[in-house]
Amino acid sequence: MRTTFLTLLLLIQTILSFAQCHVSGWVFTGTVEKPIDLPLAHMYFNSPDDSTKILYSTLTDMEGLFYLGYIPPGKYLGYAEKNGFAKVWATLAVPEGQLVWKTNFRLKRTSDKRQGIPSVNYPISQLAQSSKIADILNSLPGMKYDENTLVLSVKEGEVMIMLDDGFQLPDKIKEIQTRKIKSIDCYTIESNGRNRYAKAINILSK
């Protein structure tokens, strides 16, 4: 009797898993021939009956990739957005009987860098007045930059560093010219199960 019950339970779980889909995709800018990955872009799946009702959401990793697990089949209003880029909407139809489904979004840059995802902005006048980028990073509230490991961190984990919306490799951070910094945006990253970063900063140039 117990064996029959466990078998039935396993069968139900299998049916439910096949009734839902794993959705993944890529958010980028530029052209199809010369694309540029967009890290920290927000991806939303909204109700087709109410465009303001968010059903599922996630954040792209540093390669512009996103992943949403166990999405029921059906129609959704999907959109991707990122600070400094125009929001892009699309009607998405997640198919039945398909375990993995992929969709991509291409965003176009806007002239307004303040448009898009809310963030905390720190003008350079409120930070350390120094020619060393390490001093400026260490003056950000709650953040610590280790010049030996080249890692910026907070209590919750690592912090991704971007310069004018572009991801910066650790060994390139020390080359940032502090005299050209206008302000720094700070973001809290929504965990999607793949990101190793807890926060992100975007250094904006004058």
Biggest β-sheet description? 7 strands, mixed
Seen as an oligomer or otherwise, the chain set is: single chain
The first-to-last residue Cα distance is 72 Å
> How do the SSEs run, as a string of H and E?
HEEEEEEEEEHEEEEEE
Beta-strand content estimate: 35-45%
Radius of gyration: 21 Å
Number of strands: 15
CATH superfamily of the largest domain: Carboxypeptidase-like, regulatory domain
Low-pLDDT runs of 5+ residues are 5-18, 112-116
CATH C-level of the largest domain = Mainly Beta
Helix content: 10-25%
CATH topology of the largest domain: Immunoglobulin-like
Architecture per CATH nomenclature, i.e. the level-2 architecture of the largest domain? Sandwich
Count of discrete alpha- or pi-helical segments spanning 4 or more residues? 2
Shape: elongated
What is the number of domains? 2
Mean pLDDT: 80
Q: Which structural class do you get from the secondary structure elements?
A: mainly beta
Descriptive account of the structure:
The protein has two domains: 21-106, Immunoglobulin-like, CATH 2.60.40; 120-205, Ferric Hydroxamate Uptake Protein, Chain A, domain 1 (Beta Complex). The chain is mostly beta strands and 206 residues long. The protein is elongated, with a radius of gyration of 21 Å. Strand 11 and strand 12 (157-163) form a beta hairpin. The model is unreliable at 5-18 and 112-116 (pLDDT under 50). Helices cover 11% and strands 44% of the residues.
Brief write-up:
The protein is mainly beta and 206 residues long. It folds into 2 domains: 21-106, Immunoglobulin-like; 120-205, TonB-dependent receptor, plug domain (Ferric Hydroxamate Uptake Protein, Chain A, domain 1), CATH 2.170.130.10. The chain has helices at 2-18, 133-138, and strands at 21-30, 35-37, 42-46, 54-59, 65-71, 74-81, 88-94, 100-106, 120-123, 144-146, 151-154, 157-163, 166-167, 181-188, 197-205.
